[in-house]
Design a protein that fits this description.
Elements lengths: L28 H5 L15 E7 L5 E7 L1 H4 L4 E5 L10 E2 L6 E2 L5 E2 L5 E7 L2 H9 L2 E6 L6 H5 L23 E9 L2 H7 L2 E9 L11 E6 L5 E5 L4 H12 L6 E5 L15 H11 L3 E4 L2 H7 L6 E9 L5 E11 L7 H10 L10 E8 L14 H19 L3 H8 L19 H10 L33 E14 L8 E11 L2 E7 L9 H13 L3 E4 L17 H28 L5 H4 L2 E4 L2 E4 L4 E4 H5 L4 E8 L18 E14 L4 E12 L6 H20 L33 E4 L16 H18 L5 E2 L3 H5 L2
Parallel strand pairs: 1-14, 10-29, 12-13, 16-17, 20-21, 27-28
Antiparallel strand pairs: 1-7, 2-6, 2-8, 3-7, 4-5, 9-17, 10-15, 11-12, 11-14, 15-16, 18-26, 19-20, 19-25, 22-23, 23-24, 26-27
Helix pairs in contact: 6-7, 9-10, 10-18, 11-12, 13-14, 17-18
Keywords: Oxidoreductase
GO molecular function, one term: xanthine dehydrogenase activity
InterPro entries: Ald_Oxase/Xan_DH_a/b, Ald_Oxase/Xan_DH_a/b_sf, Ald_Oxase/xanthine_DH-like, AldOxase/xan_DH_MoCoBD1, AldOxase/xan_DH_MoCoBD2, AldOxase/xan_DH_Mopterin-bd_sf, Xanthine_dehydrogenase_dsu
């Protein structure tokens, strides 16, 4: 092993260009930057119709009557569908709990819930016809927070619950509850010389992917349907779609279309069932594309949260205990709320050694917008709070905030509050050391010798609100812990089919998985793995579809680990088959076929000493080696429902940030000058992609720190800002320099020692920015995002 903990050399594939460890170019990269890439919204089919969804204007209401006659009579309209037109006994769907109706029945539970569908020959015709559907609503009392959800006589949003969580929750309006009990909290409090508490609020964040929900459903001659769609998990979609259509899964054939970002927002269904219903009813292809307004109602968001934290420590800074309670608002339907609860609870103590822990996390049903998966998945909200607490505790102790974190930092061998031992590198203290040691950016960067100030470097930017008057700098730090892969006993596996053959005299590999490429670069990595394991330069990536086994979701930072592991596993099996063929054909010509370790390098079979035995073209001839295999990571187990104990996660990732901000204290404007990150990635299979993931995750964390929030009217539970005019996301002018320090400390349990990368930087970037703003202003700032009025008191 080298000093970094990565294997000192790679045997198989080490001489093949374009293999793992190289920053190979993405095959879709040029097409995307030149505008030639075909996204789902670009799809077209001859004689296709356009679908549109009528949505509820109310957050909670009974449907008194519904009249589609005028809409059906409009020229160009081919179909109008309501709940009564659903063809099968199964009317609901859901990732874990099937509580979401394909179309509203009897009542609506959130603003924007789908009520009816229209198919027409033009998108404007479909929209106008939908507007002619007459729905009479009777508004019902709202459930908007924990108090209204659990009050005596509160409206029950799902009164007939029969899911497996229902028996373990204290109220039917609580989706799931998970406690974590470790050590003796009373003894910890007794040992504490200093105790700090805090109440924190985390706003509802949108995934804000640029490519809207879209897909094309094409009816087939066998009575089935072919669906081309932008999604994160083809097989989970299939499992939910087919029962509602009343079709066997083999008659619903799904192919991934071009995905314009996801970040968790495409893990749940949006238009998939609707497009298929309309296509099957009309017998024509149906395309559905949401506009931006509809997109805000068409997918789940990040759970808003209210968090109460209490930390204690001895005078020398050793943590004595942690008590916390986190309430997540899951909105009208369950989505992935149970798993988000598990993450927030199991990671709620942060990357610290704490002997005595008492955590309670729950998710509510409410009439607010449904919430589910988003990058960071429950760990983001917790990290915001526990890192604010660490700064508060450091101030109370008179300690440097970084030194306090390092003093309590977990390491390999540490035991988490769930009782699970961390059995891979956990370089928390080192990550903090690295970001703190980095030189600070120069002060007053807006100044230029003898010239006018560069207002782009100032808070307020080109609005020219200040030339430096009232601008104060602040520096803040944060570190976080995120699990990788699916957890709590979920059978987390992936499938890969790999074919090796000779074409035009050269060996060519074809890799086929159902992995959703949503921008993370998975197809690039799969080709790198195939080049490494098979020693070939030509690798083709087959389009993702459901004609191969499941690859699981493109979420939880799992695809390179799990589907990459499946590709590696399948390539290894193909390689062994090739060598078996070679031994049978050519083994008598050289004793090394029987005695040496054989590798595939540069399209040839070679010994580990470098001697060439044969070309792959000679070995294979006309034979094709084609294998499809599954691969699983180590099993996990559910958390105990009373104590939260259990080995619930397969891997952990860690990132630390240092934020440097400048704040116009008079106007409450913030400029993030630099957002440095250090992260352990285990092994960087594609270093350039790794840095891109870290910078992207850091930018999303910055967004929720200072600008991003879906604003829901507390009186009506309606979304106030469903547009990119009013929901702000960071632009290139808002994005600071993001220097990245990549550590490669191998996890011996993972393929190539890699560690999932994409989510960890989203955790610690937000509290680092908040810490820097606190340092600049002296304000407590216990909610995200920070708005100008929070800084000015106006």
């Amino acid at each position: 092993m080298t000093a970094t903990g990565v294997p000192g050399h790679l045997t198989q594939g080490s001489a093949t260009r374009g293999g793992i460890g190289e920053s190979t170019l993405r095959p879709d990269g040029t097409l995307k930057v030149t505008g030639e890439f075909a996204y789902a919204s670009d799809m077209w089919h001859e004689d296709m119709l356009w679908g549109h969804t009528l949505r509820s204007p109310h957050a909670h209401a009974r449907i008194v009557s519904l009249d589609t006659g005028e809409a059906l009579a409009q020229p160009g309209v081919y179909a109008v569908l309501t709940y009564d037109d659903l063809p099968a006994e199964v009317k609901n769907y859901g990732l874990e709990i099937q509580d979401t109706p394909a179309l509203a029945h009897g009542r609506v539970r959130h603003h924007g819930e789908p009520v009816a569908l229209v198919a027409a020959d033009h998108p404007e015709t479909a929209r106008r016809a939908a507007a002619k559907i007459k729905v009479v609503y009777e508004e019902l009392p709202l459930v908007t927070d924990e108090a209204s959800a659990t009050a005596p006589g509160a409206p029950l949003l799902h009164e007939d619950r029969d899911d497996h969580h229902a028996a373990h929750t204290p109220h039917p309006n609580i989706v799931h509850r998970q406690p974590i009990v470790h050590g003796d909290i009373a003894a910890g409090r007794a040992r504490a010389d200093v105790v700090v508490t805090g109440e924190y609020v985390f706003g509802m964040q949108d995934q804000a992917f640029l490519g809207p929900e879209s897909g094309l459903a094409v009816p087939a001659e066998d009575g089935g349907v072919d669906l081309y769609v932008a999604t994160q998990w083809l097989h989970a979609d299939l499992r939910q779609i087919a029962p509602v259509l009343g079709l066997p899964e083999e008659k619903v054939r799904m192919t991934l279309s071009g995905v314009g970002g996801a970040f968790g927002g495409r893990e749940d269904l949006s238009m998939q069932i609707h497009a298929c219903l309309l296509a099957l009813r009309t017998g024509k292809p149906v395309k559905m594309v949401y506009n931006r307004f509809e997109s805000f109602f068409g997918h789940v968001h990040r759970h808003p949260a209210k968090l109460h934290y209490e930390h204690g420590a001895t005078r020398d800074g050793k943590l004595t205990h942690l008590a916390c309670r986190i309430v997540l608002d899951g909105g009208a339907y369950a989505s992935s709320s149970p798993a988000v609860v598990g993450n927030a609870a199991s990671l709620g103590a942060g990357p610290y050694n704490i002997d005595n822990v008492d955590i309670e996390v729950l998710a509510l049903y409410s009439n607010n917008p449904p919430c589910g998966a988003m990058r960071g998945f429950g760990a983001v909200q917790a990290c915001f709070a526990y890192e604010a607490q660490m700064d508060k505790l450091a101030a109370a102790l008179g300690m440097d905030p970084v030194e306090l974190r390092q003093l309590n930092a977990m390491e390999q061998g540490s035991v988490l509050p769930t009782g699970q031992s961390v059995d891979a590198p956990a370089p928390v203290a080192e990550l903090l050391r690295r970001v703190k040691a980095r030189p600070l950016p120069p002060e007053r960067q807006w100044e230029s010798a003898g010239g006018a100030p560069d207002v782009r470097a100032l808070p307020g930017g080109l609005s020219n609100t200040t030339h430096g008057e009232g601008v104060v700098r602040g520096v803040g730090y944060a570190v976080g812990i995120k699990n990788v892969g699916f957890s709590e006993g979920f059978d987390d596996y992936s499938t890969a089919r790999v074919r090796l053959q000779v074409a035009g005299g050269e060996p060519v590999a074809v890799v086929h998985t159902a992995m959703a490429e949503v921008g993370q670069g998975g197809i690039t990595v799969h080709a790198q793995i195939a080049r490494t394991e098979l020693g070939v330069s030509q690798v083709t990536i087959h389009p993702a579809d459901t004609q191969v086994g499941s690859a699981g979701s493109t979420s939880a930072s799992r695809q390179t680990y799990v589907t990459g592991g499946a590709v590696k596993h399948a390539c290894e099996a193909v390689r062994e088959k090739v060598l078996e063929i070679g031994r049978a054909k050519l083994g008598t010509y050289h004793p090394a076929w029987a005695t040496a370790e054989l590798l595939l390098e540069g399209g040839k079979v070679v010994t580990d000493g470098g001697e060439v035995l044969a070309s792959l073209a000679e070995v294979l001839g006309d034979e094709v080696v084609d294998l499809e295999l599954e691969w699983r990571h180590r099993p996990t187990e559910p958390f105990d429902l009373r104590t939260g104990q259990g080995d619930g996660h397969v891997q952990y990732s860690f990132a630390a940030h240092r934020a440097v901000v400048e704040v116009d204290t008079e106007l409450g404007l913030v400029k993030v000058v630099e957002l440095a990150c250090a992260q352990d990635v285990g092994k960087a299979l594609n270093p350039l992609s790794v840095v891109g993931q870290i910078q992207g995750g850091s930018t999303q964390g910055l967004g929720v720190a200072v600008m991003e929030e879906i604003v829901v009217d507390p009186a009506t539970a309606k979304v106030r800002n469903p547009s990119f005019t009013d929901y702000l996301i960071p632009t290139i002018l808002d994005t600071p320099t993001i220097p990245v320090d990549v550590l490669e400390l191998a996890d011996d349990h993972a393929p190539y020692g890699l560690r999932g990368v994409g989510e960890a930087p989203t955790l610690s970037s937000t509290p680092a920015v908040l810490a820097a703003i606190r340092a600049a202003t002296g304000l407590e700032l216990n909610r995200t995002p920070v708005r100008p009025e929070h800084l000015t008191g106006s």
